[in-house]
Design a protein that fits this description.
The protein has 228 residues and is α/β, with parallel strands linked by helices. The chain contains five helices and eleven strands; from the N terminus they run E-H-E-E-H-E-H-E-E-E-E-H-E-E-E-H. Bound molecules: glutamine (GLN).
């Protein structure tokens, strides 16, 4: 299974993502933002980093580069596309799902381990988890606060577009467990079809025991299984 790992100027998580894809049994290939045609790939991951120095808004410039055309085609064809952290910011700026990511409520860059509750396990990336399962992985971002207006939020719930929420160890959705002030503790969302998932936490940093968690590896394994 050939997975495109998209690299922009300032991406810094591409090697980690490639390693996780390999560990999961896939064949990753780094593709630059200048490439328009992704038709030979079975899926894509947009890794994290600081594309274009987060100028303007994190992800805003990346979302206006040629590779977005290829990614949009993939999303429309129903191929699995995952955006992690800066990748999620780029994906939302490109309109692959609804809502926006803005500055953390405390205006600080936050780097810590968090718990997530799986709200939707029907996507190609979450089919390996149980609904309501609590998983653990790190976040590292300055602009990770998810926001959408009330009507948009209700629509997202109705269409099952909320994939992950920040929770405590027991799976409770509390204010304390919300690291960045995201509305309703939302940590990850998807498009209506579910084939494009955009999340702020880093599954590739939770893909090996030595890193402290293997909960993230299942996201890549699930992706590859959905392609078979
Ligand atoms: N780890 C990342 O991808 C960082 C995301 C983005 N540059 C931010 O700080 O919000």
């Amino acid at each position: 299974m050939n997975i495109a790992v998209i690299k922009f100027l300032g991406t810094n998580c591409e090697e980690d993502v490639c390693r996780s894809i390999r560990l999961a049994g896939g064949n990753p290939q780094i593709v630059w933002f200048t490439e328009r045609d992704l038709s030979k790939f079975d899926g894509a991951v947009i890794p994290g980093g600081f594309s274009y120095g987060d100028y303007l808004r994190a992800g805003a410039i990346g979302a206006r580069t040629p590779v977005i055309e290829g990614l949009r085609n993939m999303v429309e064809m129903g191929k699995p596309v995952l955006g992690i952290c800066n990748g999620a910011q780029i994906g939302l700026e490109a309109g692959f799902s609804k809502g926006a990511l803005t500055n953390n409520i405390n205006w600080r860059f936050i780097c810590k381990w968090v718990y997530l509750r799986v709200e939707n396990n029907k996507t190609p990336f979450t089919r390996g988890y149980k609904k309501g399962e609590v998983i653990r992985m790190p976040i590292a971002h300055g602009e990770g606060r998810f926001y959408i207006d009330e009507d948009g939020l209700q629509e997202m719930y109705k269409k099952k577009m909320i994939v992950f929420k920040y929770c405590n160890e027991d799976g409770e959705i509390t204010e304390d467990a919300n690291p960045n002030g995201s509305i309703d503790n939302i940590a990850g969302v998807c498009n209506e079809k579910g084939n494009c998932v955009l999340l702020m936490p880093h599954p590739e940093r939770a893909s090996e025991k030595i890193l402290g968690s293997t909960d993230g590896l299942l996201m890549f394994k699930s992706m590859l299984q959905s392609i078979q």
